[in-house]
Specification:
Strand content: 35-45%
Number of strands: 11
Oligomer: single chain
Number of helices: 0
Order of helices and strands: EEEEEEEEEEE
Distance between the termini: 55 Å
Helix content: under 10%
Structural class: mainly beta
Largest sheet: 4 strands, antiparallel
């Protein structure tokens, strides 16, 4: 759309509402495309639940999915702002900020789903106890990230060619961290 004809209709599908109270702050989205226009592309959404202070994950099998799965990933005080979600190996990975640890070296977190994508399970109970379905890690940093400043708007997530997650965020300068590959004993 270039506004040469601003009265033309905009070809955008009707929005899909995901009816979860207070979920929708700090939203990030990843589309898992197989490159085939004839198959559905699952949507992976990470968002902050401002009612409970939790990180939520929403899985939709397609854009038209009327019954998305919504689960609690982390519920340790106030976690889940500045999200970034990506899919690796068919499973979601989410980087995010732990606002309960604002101003400390424990504020950057990474979560990955360990279970089956058929029925996605909570990673934490409503009282904050881990279920073992999601792995959540505190990422080591050098200076404390600047989560309270306007320059800090996201914990960016990517993967290198070896499949290791890389995180980028603002500390006293821009900082990047890499999760080391798993070592099998």
């Amino acid at each position: 759309i270039d506004l040469a004809t601003p009265t033309d209709a905009v070809p955008v599908a009707a929005p899909v509402e995901i009816p979860v109270d207070y979920v929708g702050w700090y939203v990030s989205l990843a589309v898992e495309s197989d490159g085939n226009a004839l198959t559905d592309d699952p949507l992976h959404i990470a968002a902050y639940d401002s009612g409970d202070g939790d990180l939520r994950y929403i899985h939709m099998t397609s854009y038209a999915d009327a019954s998305p799965q919504v689960v609690r990933v982390d519920a340790n005080n106030s976690v889940g702002i500045y999200t970034s979600v990506l899919v690796r190996g068919g499973k979601p990975w989410i980087s995010y900020y732990n606002n309960s640890e604002n101003g400390t070296r424990d504020s950057i977190k990474l979560a990955r789903y360990l279970g089956s994508m058929v029925t996605i399970a909570d990673g934490a109970s409503s009282d904050g106890y881990a279920t073992g379905q999601w792995e959540t890690l505190t990422v080591p940093v050098i200076p404390p990230p600047q989560g309270g400043l306007t320059k800090f708007l996201r914990v960016n997530l990517g993967f290198n060619t070896a499949g290791d997650p890389l995180l980028g965020y603002a500390a006293s300068s821009i900082e990047a961290s890499r999760r080391l590959p798993e070592v099998t004993p």
